[in-house]
Amino acid sequence: MIARARWRRASTGRWRYLAGAAFAAALIAAGGQSGAGHSVGHFPSYYPDEIRIDVADPEAAGKGLGDATMHVYVGGVPKFGGPVPVQVKSLKSLGSFLVLTFDPASPRFQSAEARCTAAHFILRRVAQGGKDAGFAFHPYPVTPYHADYLHHIDKANAATLERMKPLGWHAVPPVVLDAQALGAKGKLAETIVKSRLGSIAERPDVVLEEVPIDGLVSAASVQLGSWTGPPWIKEGWFHAWRLLAPGLDAEHRPAAEEAYDRLIHGQLRGGLAERVDLERKLVAALGRGCNRVVLGYAEREEYFNESYPPGVENVVNDAIAGFNAPVFIRTVKLKEYPWNGKLHLGVPAASDSAWNPVGGFTDATARLMWTAVADPAMIPFPFNASWMPNRVQAELSKVEGRSGGIKVPADALRPRAGSGELERVGDWAAASEKVTYEVLPSPFEDGTEQGVADLLYPYAFTYRWGDEANRGANAYDPGVAAVLAPIKERLAGVKVVRVNETKHAVAEGLELIVKTPVVEVYLNGAPGDERQVANLAPPWSTVPWHLLVLMEEAVVRGWAAFSAEEAARRKVPWLDLVRDRTLIAKLQELVVQFERESYRPAPLKDLVTAEEARARWRSLRAFAEKNGHFLVANGPYRLKSWTSDTIVLDAVREMTYPLGFGTFDRFVFPPRAEIEQAVQEGRSVKLRASAAMTLKGGRGYTETKEPLLHTTARGVYPLLVVSRYLLIDAAGKVVGVDKMRWAEDGHFAIDLAPQLPPGDYTVIAGIFLDGNAVRPSARVLRVHIGAAGSPG
Q1: Mean pLDDT of the 427-455 span
Q2: What average pLDDT does this structure show over 654-670?
Q3: Domain boundary residue among 275, 298, 321?
Q4: Average pLDDT taken over every residue of the chain
Q5: Buried b vs exposed e over 187-209: b needs ≥16 C-beta within 10 Å?
Q6: pTM for the complete prediction?
Q7: Which H or E run includes 677?
Q8: 421 part of a folded domain
Q9: What confidence category does residue 506 fall into, taking pLDDT thresholds of 50, 70 and 90?
């Protein structure tokens, strides 16, 4: 397909084209301009030609959105001079948790009973007001914004009811908190405590804290120029672990750790039902002891101008990351100049983290820039917890329930711990999963072609820099170690199978060559769905091997450190490839040396020739001299200029970039299923649902709702309909998870198995359209199965 194409190079190293007029016309078309010449069907990169990110305080953001000089305010709440202008719209996502934390040294709260009773009292006081106070009372760590909320909805409802029960008279006196006992951390928490208890304690026994979801998630993610953190990074149970595990005491920690270890290590033999049951057990274990207690959550509301002609449309937000997600940059377009306009984004704060693709880009503004410059192998699905292909297509082969069912080829490679050198696995290696990737490469911004060495070097890099034995040699970083841990115990081997090459004529006299590496990655015990497994350690890097090597050398020589933690420990600068002028000068000298020496690291000796290495360093040197920085990637946008308060990015418009306009447009305004009816009929539970959709019409959008039938479509596109139900026994154990039967008349049916033991059960049912699992319209039903096997 053309989207995977790159230009064929002639033997002289220049781009090959067959007709100059056709070539020029193709480039004009690719840039989004109209012309009289030939056109091609691939428009590389995404809609805006330029993205400008400006730091703006809430007042400036409100003014900019109101007068259309700013298109979108990312991550902040604008202040308007009056009511929100009619042309300014907003989308919501999960913003933060509200958590009570008890001081373990407080004599008043040494026992779990005292803590839980006090928490109950505080939650009842705070619950008054709810969303009117800027938060949703929801005393459970998995929220409706989490894709796995369906697995917990009965528990969440029960927790809310339990927290609203009155306290017995005998329990109140010992734990009633005076106004000086409760502290607050974060603006929302301070507002709540003041309004409910009158004042904030300076030396409190218990603190109400607002925990932003951004920090909770980003702290678990390291880029590595290729991999984006744990595959389950958007799951509610994982957020619950990150949120509550630090507060567990010695008595309650073992049960939670056991459940968590089993989830992340895939130690499950009972299929999806066992996994869902274990997720519920983990969340329950995290709540025992009441050292930390979830009170609720606050939404993040982000604003954009949708007026015509100066506004934007095609806006997609992520349920967890909001607008600061790869999918936003890849869909948003200007109404007046959809193919070539200049997108103006506002952010509330300047970037204060280093800009490097290993342990940098940790603040919100830097992450926003990196979502445009970087191209991960896969990107998060915006409204569920899985992943979608970006620069790889993946197919999973899996042996259920046992390890070692797939033989790993003897010539597959695996990095050696400590050195990262790539070694043959030999004759006796086995795996339980094989992921076959088709990779969509494109040249890096310094003009070098992405090759097999770029796909394999992230494995070598991670095995070297994640090994603590290298700490003394300045070749260790704890962030890389955190990424290595789940990979090291699972990776059985990597094999480059072949590089497919095909030709495509895209216009008269214009030929493109498609080169697609096919790589097999062998794993053991990788948990999660197919896409999550594929995102564990794909063969990909958005930065070239020679840039990773250059950064390594800077760290080893003591010039800088990848992460803030290591920079502080070693008392060296945090490695910044753009703004540290002293480091830039040193790197420029080092690149000249490496070019002269044709330097390549030991893991690449058999993959990169001396001549190829010399060409790489020469290209990097030229790039740095021209651009004044070393941030080389192969994403849809490139860094053009920057100041302390402004970042400007240019779109990549070469035909070599394989993705383009419309790639992710299907995620705009996700449809939502609404269950209208759910009843038990004999041995079945039957449901009927509608589809709520937003459809584009002319310059605007219309809301529509219609019965969900097999023929229901979203405009001209058929809906992808997925259903799921949980069957839970009277003891709270999940005994079944499956899809519902969708009849031709539109009914969904759950058929209760004939061998189901008599008793009371809970059925949780949900229906998802086009992958939208956020804020589900779910039904919780209580059913009874009589002794004879029929409903009693």
Answers
A1: 94
A2: 89
A3: 298
A4: 87
A5: ebbeebbeebbeebbeebbbbbb
A6: 0.90
A7: strand 672-681
A8: yes
A9: low
Q: Is residue 321 part of a domain?
A: no
- Name residue, tokens 């979830």: 294
Q: Look at residue 2 in the predicted model and tell me its pLDDT.
A: 29
Q: Does 615 share its domain with 753?
A: no
Cα–Cα distance, 632 to 621 (Å, whole number): 11
Closest CA to 227 of 329, 328, 375, 355: 375
Structure confidence at residue 21 (pLDDT):
29
Q: How many CB atoms lie within 10 A of CB 317?
A: 24
Name 655's Cβ contacts closer than 8 Å, sequence gap at least 6: 5, 6, 7, 26, 27, 30, 40, 42, 44, 512
- Per-residue pLDDT band for 130 (boundaries 50, 70, 90) equals low
- Kindly tell me if the per-residue pLDDT of 575 is higher than 90: yes
pLDDT band, residue 789 (cuts 50/70/90): very low
Do 280 and 394 belong together in one domain?
no
**Maximal CA-CA distance, the chain:** 90
* pLDDT of 33: 33
Give 718's contacts (C-beta < 8 A, 6+ positions apart): none
From 254, 269, 298, the end of a domain falls on 298
Local structure of 506: helix, strand or coil: strand
Q: Are residues 636 and 744 in the same domain?
A: no
If phi > 0 it is left, if psi is from -120 to 50 it is alpha, else beta; for residue 122 that is alpha
* More confident position, 9 or 503: 503
In terms of Cα–Cα distance, which of 313, 248, 353, 247 is closest to 91?
A: 313
**In a shared domain, residues 601 and 673:** no
> What burial class does residue 384 get, using C-beta atoms within 10 Å of its C-beta: 0-12 exposed, 13-18 middle, 19+ buried?
buried
Q: Domain of 683?
A: 669-785
Same domain, 427 and 497: yes
The amino acid sitting at 115 is R
In the block, residue with structure tokens 């377009």? 333
Q: Is residue 62 part of a domain?
A: no
CATH number reported for the structural domain that contains residue 768 in this entry: 2.60.40
Residue 171 has pLDDT above 90, yes or no: no
Do both 633 and 753 map to the same domain? no
Q: What is the CATH number of the domain that holds 233?
A: 3.10.105
Q: Are 228 and 321 in contact (CB under 8 A)?
A: no
Q: Quick check: is 360 in a domain?
A: no
441 and 528 share one domain: yes
Predicted local confidence at residue 350, as pLDDT? 97
Same domain? 625 vs 686: no
Give the number of domains in the chain: 3
- Could you read off the pLDDT of 207-250 as tens digits, one per residue? 999 999 988 887 666 555 567 778 889 999 999 999 999 999 88
